[in-house]
Amino acid sequence: LLVISMWLLLRFFDTDRLRTLAAAGFLFGLGVLCKQDYGAAALAAFLTALIVYGNSVPKPRAHSTPRLLAYFLGPAALVGVAMSAHFLYHGVYGDLLGFTVVNHVLGIATYNYRTFPDIFPLFLQDPALRSDAGLLAFMPAILVSTDWHAFNNSFLWQQTWAWDLAMKVFYYGPYAIVALGVFRLVRHRDALKTPGARPAYLHELTLLALAGFFMLLITLNRPQDYVHLVVLYWPILCLSVIDVHAFFSARPRFVRPA
Question: Exposed site from 51, 109, 162, 228, fewest CB < 10 Å?
């Protein structure tokens, strides 16, 4: 739902149609019902993109920033009101807040959740990754559930640190990709003033904001393990594609003619 909401938001940046923005807000509200912490990160990202859009439209502007926020947040708020009314009617609204908000915050503050593996050592086998607890938290489950015996006895695992390095890149690489994205958008910010380049800039900004706030979420919000990171990885992968495309587009000598 949040992905579809983002797609509609990007369509709004292309078309300036308020009904598309309202639909994005409605689906965002439904998405928050499914996953509150991801919804909070998406809200921060989408509002960032909307505010930049609203304050960079060439004058005379068709829509003010408060109007844009109202069209997006209004339908989302209606979803929240309907949900609250349902649980209030059944007398369990307090339990809802307890399970979805209070217990989660208390758990983060009091429970010793797993955190990311230390970034060092980089070029050595890391015992923390290879312990039973490390394998459970940081190893992709498909390797354990398909043919762990073959992987465990492979040359790659037994004799090299390649797997350990790959895991460190997986866990810490997204921070570098987000930083590179910020650098790119700051460097090319004049694209907001160019009608032909503006939509693509806003698309990349939305992806970057979502990736950035997802990484902020998992940095502050434990547990930090493979499962909780990999579900947030898709905007990082999209940003990586954009970065690679930009690199080769700026260096055509590296691209062989078809």
Answer: 109
CA distance 111 to 96: 21
Q: Quickly tell me which residue has 């009314």 as its tokens.
A: 85
Per DSSP, 101 falls in state I
Who wins on pLDDT, 57 or 168? 168
Report how far residue 132's alpha carbon sits from residue 22's, in angstroms, rounded to the nearest whole number. 48
Indicate if the alpha-carbon torsion angle 14, 16, 17, 18 is positive or negative: positive
Dihedral (CA of 222, 226, 228, 233) sign: positive
Close Cβ partners of 68 (under 8 Å, ≥ 6 residues apart) = 21, 50, 53, 54
Please state, in angstroms and rounded to a whole number, the distance separating the CA atoms of residues 14 and 11.
Answer: 5
CA–CA distance, 135 with 149 (Å, rounded to integer): 14
Average model confidence (pLDDT) across the chain: 88
What is the per-residue pLDDT for 109?
65
